[in-house]
Design brief:
With about 190 residues, the chain is of the alpha+beta class. The chain contains 7 helices and 4 strands; from the N terminus they run αααββααββαα. Helix 2 packs across helix 7, helix 3 packs across helix 4 and helix 6 packs across helix 7.
Length: about 190
């Protein structure tokens, strides 16, 4: 086990207490996710490590993917988003006033759409449980995307009512993150632990 992983696990145990004890020997995504949530709930922590953003790392996420997500959170104020809730899915238009952020947004979206299609969950520590449904039922989602100028337009549809509900929920969650950044994630995580 690497020094970094041992240090991370020791820190989780120190901060999160008993719920994280299991992660020392079996650092599963679920255990680490729970420990992260518990840390915020037990200590009423709203501060965030905005330099490293450790919650953006995942069991199955590449460093590049985590870096893209960090950029989107750090520069969320450059993003705007429109969502149309369709009877069978969603249509979103997301923009950035910063061309570099726009490039990161397109890369992130294309990468995640590919992961959903392949049912390849990155298991990001702070990801919403809604994504679990989307990653596990990626074969039930039809996605189209296009970039027009500074707009990323994505349409996702399904015939499965549970998948449609998850698409609607996730669209609202992403819009909240675009509007409020990491504060939206922290608030959602606090509600999950209560």
């Amino acid at each position: 086990m690497s020094k970094t992983r041992i240090s991370l696990l020791a820190l989780i145990v120190l901060i999160a207490g008993g719920a994280a004890t299991l992660t020392l020997f079996n650092p599963s995504y679920e255990a680490m996710h729970l420990a992260h949530q518990k840390m915020h709930a037990d200590h009423n922590i709203h501060a965030h490590d905005v330099t490293d953003m450790p919650g953006l790392k995942g069991e199955n996420a590449s460093p590049e993917e985590s870096k893209e997500i960090a950029i989107l959170f750090k520069k969320f104020e450059t993003l705007t988003r429109e969502v149309e809730m369709l009877p069978n899915g969603i249509r979103t238009v997301t923009r950035s006033s910063d061309p570099e952020v726009m490039d990161v947004l397109v890369s992130h979206a294309i990468g995640m759409m590919g992961r959903v299609e392949a049912k390849d969950d990155p298991k990001i520590l702070i990801q919403s449980p809604t994504l679990d449904a989307l990653f596990s039922h990626g074969d039930r989602i039809i996605t189209t995307s296009e970039v027009e100028g500074n707009s990323l337009i994505i349409t996702q549809i399904s015939e499965d009512k549970d998948v449609i509900a998850a698409l609607h929920t996730h669209a609202a969650e992403v819009t909240d993150m675009v509007d409020r950044g990491m504060a939206a994630v922290h608030e959602r995580m606090m509600h999950l632990t209560n």
